[in-house]
Amino acid sequence: MGDLILNINLKESVKFKKPVIETYSGKIKKLKNKTFSGPLMKIDIDCNDNYNNIYSEELSNIKNIILSNGNSKISKYKYIFDEKNFIDLIQYTYDKKNLYFTSKDAKMHQIDDVLSIDEIYYKPNNGKANFFYTDTKKQNIEVKTFNMCAFSSMSLVYDNNKLIIIYKLLNRQFLDRMKIQKFKLNNKSEEDISKEMYVLENEIGHSNQDYYNIEPEPILYIVFKSDKIYGKLYFNYDGMEIKSNSNIQLINLLGKKYYRNLAIENKYINILNINFGDKFKENIFMYKENKALDSSINYLLQNKFVIYTEDKKRVFTSSSMNFSIDYNINWFEINGDIKFNNKTYKLAELLDLKAKNTRFIEINNSVLILPKFINDQKKYLNKDCKKVAIPKRKIGEVMELADEMKIGNINNLHELIHYVDIKNNLPKKFLQKLRDYQIKGIEWLKYLYINGFGGCLADDMGLGKTIQAIGFLSDKEFDANNSITFIVVPKTLLSNWKKEINRFNKSLHVEIYYGSSRVEILKNINMHKGIFLTTYGTVLNDINNLLNISIDCLILDEVQYIKILSQKLIMQ
Known about the structure:
elongated
């Protein structure tokens, strides 16, 4: 386990005009030049790691400061700090010898001491300017190097392993000029030059009547292209939209001057990266298909994003949704109210609207994104009745849907006949031939039939699937001789099925629907009901005639053949 290292990045701090702290893990060595040497690993301070140089309580306090309100996380290991939080972190950590400063030479220098002063001053020396500050012992200390950056209320200077916090704003350009050129008064008083050492607030874009410092509004345009979703990010400064990757720093709009707030912009970029998709080109973000689009959009809206489609239609998610599911004789009916733009719509009404993209519902020049599990129900919309009715056989899907909709109870579901309430009504002689698990299988088939469901009996080979099917057909409540049942089997099993039916229940009327005899059978099928054995090939040939028959029960043996049958039907 390495040591926790906190680094002040000069270049990034100058860029964002706010302190930028980086979090690393590495081995801190005691070197004479007090620069860091060795490999560094970027770390997320929010992870549950421990470090050799910090106690758990100290680590907890450091985390609380770094993750507190006012700071912005712009990458896994990089944070833009509120100035007060920055001072708190410096005061808490510098004596632990894990605080560093990356200077102009790109080296990480350990900070031995932190000083807070009110100002620096200069003294002319042989035509050059030397700069000094007064420390706590009233000593005059010369500043040798100006590794510095200015913020809204203070300046940072790193010099000789000391971090100097000056509660005035230093004019970096002026100081650099003074150090490079020979020092001359140029007919200016020393007082005038002293003033030029410090930058006026309006020069860095803070609270001056000639300059305005406003928070940018993030604007995301959603674009559909080649079955992919992209987001183009802009920032709105008082009506002027700027690309997120633009090099513009100063905005002059209708006589007002704005400095871009890059720290806030990066906070929004980070939110977009995590909750919509990764930035992959300039100001374009690719949507992560594994995330729910409505949830991602909703999160962005909650975080002050304004979202449009490419043709400038405002995108919303529903402000509230209330759903219920009713169980009826042959279907489950979904009812719901969805509130959008202060107006309430019925679910069926929304699903019936035509949208350019199935993810979006266009209403009055705005766009509503429905949850995916709701949008998927379009296929069940009964346009005549204005109802969303899901067939009863889809009970599994309905239960999943109820869970996603957070519906605790389905109305009238008690009318569904439960498996535990199913009792067999088999002839005694037949019942005596069955094993317990076969009886349960027959009762399960009866449960499916009574409730109008389909099912797959998939016992292992030799456990009696055929006898369980014959058992269901023998149940007196089903009354097979007064119903029409088709059993579809491979051609080689036609005779075997008829033999097995006659063996276990001779009272059942069974015919083979195959060959030339099937024409006569088809003519009289409604008068001579019963069980009809046929093949997959015959079904394929006679599909149009068979579709006109009201079949009460359909049993498929060796059901994998249905794939071949389906493919042939599609080709016809």
